[in-house]
Design a protein that fits this description.
Blueprint: H1 2-16, H2 30-46, H3 49-76, H4 78-82, E1 88-91, E2 97-103, H5 108-124, E3 127-133, H6 139-155, H7 157-169, H8 176-185, H9 190-197, H10 200-215, E4 223-226, E5 229-232, H11 237-248
Parallel strand pairs: 2-3
Antiparallel strand pairs: 1-3, 2-4, 4-5
């Protein structure tokens, strides 16, 4: 399908050079069709850059179509993205720009993005951050998210922020022994948090975020929503700041 699309551009150029009576390719004889195909082949061999130009145009059109579709997805799900009533909100809660991150604590690119996002929040000072727990990389990811959500529900937003940072910095296996040590480090009630981890409240938060991600067609982490735009994948600080500046106009 891709090659057929790419060859259509040079073929169209050749058609434009033909008389109007010859433009109906379905009316060509087998001999005329063979000649036409050979002309297209010769044209491409003489002008191979046309293929790359066609690829670039096709990619631009597909990117524009994807961006438009993503904006519609964000608009249709705005309430659950920006005001679900349970996701942690940090940065500047009154900021003029909202950045939402879907993350997994076992994702290497999420760990890299965590540092970049922290730098963005610090240097900009006017960004509202919303964190969506989206564990998709196995049981350890789910265990880490349950621990983080349970911490928020039991001990509040400040405790969640500390645990979120610690989980992102964590390199070893995620298990209850390690999580209980982490809770103790922050002076938290490990027993209460562990008891909460399998609660219906924690399960419901993660389920609702997964359902939202499915509606947004999010399949990997990190994924960001920057105002009305979906950003799929890791972005370094400079690119994020440039996108923020663009949103401000």
């Amino acid at each position: 399908m891709m090659l057929r699309t790419l060859f259509a551009a040079p073929a169209l150029a050749l058609c434009m050079a033909l008389p109007a009576s010859a433009l109906d390719l379905t009316q060509m004889t087998d001999e005329e069709r063979a000649i036409f195909r050979e002309e297209v082949r010769a044209y491409l061999l003489d002008n191979p850059q046309v293929i790359m130009e066609a690829v670039a145009v096709l990619e631009e059109r597909e990117a524009a179509a994807q961006a438009q579709a993503d904006q519609s997805l964000v608009s249709d799900n705005a309430a659950d993205i920006f005001d679900d009533g349970f996701s942690w909100v940090g940065g500047n809660p009154e900021g003029d720009i909202t950045l939402v991150e879907f993350l997994d604590y076992r994702c290497g690119f999420c760990k890299r993005a965590h540092t970049e996002v922290a730098k963005l929040l610090e240097t900009d000072g006017n960004i509202r951050l919303i964190v969506k727990e989206f564990p998709i990389l196995g049981e350890q990811s789910l265990l880490a998210s349950r621990f983080a959500v349970a911490t928020k529900q039991i001990a509040g937003d400040d405790a969640y922020k500390g645990v979120n940072d610690a989980l992102m910095a964590m390199n070893g296996d995620v298990n209850m022994r390690a999580l209980r040590r982490m809770a103790a480090t922050f002076g938290l009630d490990a027993d209460a948090i562990e008891a909460q981890m399998d609660s219906a409240e924690v399960t419901d938060e993660i389920r609702r975020t997964r359902a939202l991600a499915q509606r947004l067609q999010i399949t990997g982490t990190p994924t960001f929503v920057l105002e009305d735009e979906l950003l799929r994948g890791y972005l370094p600080y400079d690119e994020m700041q440039a996108l923020v500046n663009d949103k401000r106009g």
